[in-house]
Amino acid sequence: MAMNAVARETVFALRRQIAKIEGTLAERLAAPAGASLDTGVDTDVTILRRSVTVAPHDAFLRTGAERLDAALSGGLPKAALNEIHGAETRDAGAVAGFTLALISLILRQQPRLPVLWIGTAEIFHEAGFPYARGLDACFDIEPEQLLFSEAPRLADALWIAEEAARMTALAAVILEIRGSPQRLDLTATRRLHARAQNAGRPVFLLRQAGEAEPTAAPVRLILSAAPAAPRETITGPLAGSIGRPAFTVSIGKSRTALPGQFTLEWNPDEHIFEERRAQEERAKNPVPVVPASRRGKDIAAAPGAVLAFPTVGSPAAGDQPSPRERAAHRRPRRAG
What we know:
Order of helices and strands: HEEEEHEEHEHHEHEHEEEEEEEHH
Shape: globular
Helix content: 25-40%
Strand content: 15-25%
Distance between the termini: 80 Å
Structural class: alpha/beta
Number of strands: 16
Oligomer: single chain
Largest sheet: 9 strands, mixed
Radius of gyration: 29 Å
Strand order of the largest sheet: 8-7-9-10-6-11-14-15-16
């Protein structure tokens, strides 16, 4: 029994170490009172890893959704590799739209710097390019600020991304990849993450229709499109209309947060994300729902009588067909 207990503790320790390496173990610790950085100035800090990293709160990009930013200890890290994952090909539009919204937040702090979007010919042929008028109308991004680099192979795209990630003349770098290529491994993502840290610029890794494989990105967000709510007017929701773009955001991996799911709407006027609560959705769109538990407080109403045929003209109970009618039913059906 003692040997089994020791072996079990060893296995748990190994699993915990693997989770730390992959960034799937949440270790969000409050900084002790009076904690200070190397400069000796007291500041409000968050410990990302125990005895490893201490980062100030201004090192994060706030989305505006309070619960998501709180779960991520302030937002997405600015000087890091951030992975935005779409599980299916049809999620490519949601992944691109969410990334462009983040780029809009970044360009508000650095309005004069361009953004480089890198991808292979395969991904651009499959998902397409952003619409120039939509960039200006929805995200306040000038079309000339968004530069595209179409590489013939994945190896070329990774090389361009590594070289661009070290440049401080770019506000951000976007690398879009389709599927789960073998070349995109921990080594390649570590290089991208290191370049982003040295340059102090974010690198967004867009994964389209791929598996959630281990990467060096501290944060992985899983994106999909959410149903748009009706457009709000002075008199209330406008029936049959389409409101703001909505996204379902799940925290797939984070060094400071536990897994969670949020429904966010992008406000193109205020240029900020707003969370849409499930309770508000039910209030706007009331739909009768069967209770989850039969023994709960709200027991579902008993169903009414279900009839296979209308009652009008049906024979009374106990009526039987006549002998002549029975004989007719026994006759064989004609082939023709």
